Amino acid sequence: MFSATWVLTLTCLCQIQTSLGHFPDLENVAYSKTVTLSSNFHSGGYGGSKAVNGMYDDLAHTGRERYPWLRIDLGGNFFIHEVEVFARATCVKCGKQLHNFDVKFGKHKHDLRRCGHYSRETHAGQRVAFWCPGNSVGRYVLIRIAGGRPSYLSVAEVLVWGIPERLMKQYYD
Fold first, then answer.
1. How far apart are CA 88 and CA 58, in angstroms?
2. How far apart are CA 171 and CA 164, in angstroms?
3. What is the mean pLDDT of each run of 10 residues along the chain (173 residues)?
4. CA–CA distance, 88 with 125 (Å, rounded to integer)
5. End-to-end distance of the chain based on CA atoms, in angstroms?
């Protein structure tokens, strides 16, 4: 009974999501991709790959600096629908390590457009979602602390929901 109810609920949610104009072929295009950090936390073990490994109980962590950042190379151009950033859940006092940040995207790592901005401190385990403007296509996604004093940047996971650019024609033809 429980599993049948669960399947029915998921089926309804999929139909609702599709009926609201979401693309049915969205996938997390950041999973296991290359991640570069602006610096590394001094104790090591917090490399960028931990931000895209599908695990929410570890984290990527920069050193303390002005404007720390994390950049994901998606390996090709994708239509980017949504970016989800998850704060680390294991540290209640670490909201300052993910605060006042921009999410940017672009086809070239030195020419990025802003998808969104979050202007507060996060709380443990918080999910912050950004819906990128229509026709957002890019290979790179950047998360960067936008201002203030030197600080750290740490995230538990980053999901980039998208579709390969070559498949977008079917939605616009």
1. 7
2. 12
3. 41 39 82 96 86 94 94 97 94 82 97 95 94 92 91 95 84 59
4. 5
5. 42
141 within 8 A of 28, measured Cβ to Cβ: no
**pTM of model > 0.70:** yes
Q: HSE, CB side, 13 Å, CA atoms: give it for residue 59.
A: 22
Question: Residues 6 or more apart from 27 whose CB is under 8 A from it?
Answer: 161, 162, 163
What is the model's pLDDT at position 22?
A: 59
| DSSP-derived 3-state class of residue 45 | coil
What are the residue boundaries of the structural domains of the chain, listed by start? 25-172
Provide the 10 A C-beta neighbour count for residue 77: 17
List 99's β-bridge partners, or say none.
Answer: 121
- Amino acid 172: pLDDT: 58
Please give the pLDDT value at position 31: 98
For the domain spanning 25-172, the CATH number is: 2.60.120.260
**Biggest CA pair distance of the chain:** 54
Q: Report the C-alpha gap between 11 and 2 in whole angstroms.
A: 14
